[in-house]
Amino acid sequence: MADDRSNLEGDRVRLGTQPPPVEERRRPPQPSQGFDANRPTIVSILYLASFVTGITGLIGIVLAHVWQGENDEEWMASHYSYLIRTFWYAFLAGVVATLLSIVFIGLLMFPIIAIWFGVRSVMSLMKAQRREPMPDPQTLLF
């Protein structure tokens, strides 16, 4: 039996199917060169999809609030703050625009709110793909 085991080890070495050394198995994951579906990216995509579906923005805000308490990495905290503020300020502005629609001023506000919401979502998406924190998550600007 010991003879069979030594033959098996020899076959692994000869065929190049030897498992990697322990040091290589414990390395932290390297950032991918492709699309990275991290949590802030998911929330940003849900926000952007709400332009088509309408409901995914609500799913995004729920996930952002839930995931905010589970910060896996440092850079994610600024994204959650930025995305949560983006949703709630856009929601508040939408309510104000709805009320002002009675005097037609609100109708001009809706496209501005949509552009602001979209730009902030795309900015967070781009930074999340590079795993960079948002520079100033408390700002109302871009």
Question: What report would you give on this structure?
Answer:
- The protein is mostly helical.
- The chain is built from 6 helices and no strands.
- Residues about 25-30 have low confidence and may be disordered.
Features:
142 residues; mainly alpha; 6 helices; 0% strand; elongated
Write the layout of secondary structure elements.
Layout: H1 2-15, H2 22-25, H3 39-49, H4 56-68, H5 74-100, H6 105-129
Helix pairs in contact: 3-4, 3-5, 3-6, 4-5, 5-6
- Report helical residue fraction: 55-70%
Termini separation comes to 69 Å
Name the overall outline: elongated
CA radius of gyration: 24 Å
Indicate the proportion of strand residues.
under 5%
Number of beta-strand segments: 0
Order of helices and strands: HHHHHH
Average residue-wise pLDDT: 85
Coarse structural class: mainly alpha
Question: In this structure, how is the largest beta sheet organized?
Answer: none
Short description:
The protein is an all-alpha fold and 142 residues long.
